[in-house]
Amino acid sequence: MQYEAKYITADIKLSCYQDKFFKSDILFEHHMLIWFLSGETKIIRTEGTYFFKQGDIFLIPRNQLATIINYPKDGLPHKTVVMHLTSDWLRNYYNKIEPKRQSGEGNRILHYSNHPLLESCLSSLIPYFDMEELPAGLADLKITEAVTILRSIDTGIDTILSNFEEPGKIDLAAYMERNFMFNLPLEKFGYLTGRSLTAFKRDFKKIYASTPQRWLTKKRLELAHYQLVEKKKKPIDVCYEVGFENLSHFSFAFKKQFGYAPTELVFDVRSAQ
After folding, report:
1. Which of 140, 183, 200, 221 has minimal CB crowding within 10 Å?
2. Which residues lie closer than 8 Å to 151 by C-beta, 6 or more apart?
3. What sign has the CA pseudo-torsion 167, 165, 35, 10?
4. 74: Cβ–Cβ under 8 A, 6 or more apart, which residues?
């Protein structure tokens, strides 16, 4: 993978992937405001799949699981401007103003449809990525500008940005049934369900009478089988969407579980049509 990143600060970067695609399962530690310069991204969440392309601007809330697949497009690399809105920065910001909170869901990806104010704010960052010395306080000013614009165009954004709660102990089984396709370390699953790693493994064993690794593999392969047969998806797409890191490992595990390779199943399904 040929990857390049240029930084104004640790919280503002220009990200560029040159290869065919890049896939990652991610837990976002900070809110991320992203502006697409070129390429495409598929973001798989429990509530659905999102597709973003050149010109799109969107915000991914923190502490959310997602599978990210980045693609070059039309001979151009996958290139984005990324701004992290950290909890420390936002706490300081909201200490000075009164947030306008609303009831509603706070874990969806928010799409701002090429909004001209946000695009102007983010595009103004481009020249700074090639400068060796930057004006003092520039990053803080630009993040303040971006958040101010977000608050003016999205009346519900304070509900997300001013929420600093960490995950509490929740129903482990319900959470895992919704999120098993995300290939994260068990420590992260423990954190998101409000448990230490030891407590997570203990509670998991009580519920499923299995280790997390075995249960996760079985669930992912069952989902893969369904996607191949019912949704008529390609093995290469299914592989990454259900939590495997490469096609060869997926094919080996699938054949071990079901007795035939994913490609054989696809061929059989097409022959029966």
Report:
1. 140
2. 100, 157, 158
3. negative
4. 38
Which parts of 40-188 are beta strand (E)?
A: 40-45, 48-53, 57-60, 65-71, 78-85, 110-111
Using an 8 Å Cβ cutoff, are 146 and 124 in contact?
no
CA dist 150 and 17 (Å) reads 27
Q: φ and ψ at 41, to 5 degrees?
A: -135, 135
Tokens of 23: 């896939």
For residue 209, the one-letter residue type is A
* Domains identified in the chain and CATH numbers: 3-161 (2.60.120.810), 172-271 (1.10.10.60)
Beta sheet of 22-27, edge-to-edge order: 22-27, 65-71, 40-45, 48-53
DSSP class of residue 97?
S
Show the tokens assigned to 172. Answer: 């482990």
Cβ 165 vs Cβ 140: under 8 Å? no
**What's the DSSP call for residue 109?**
P
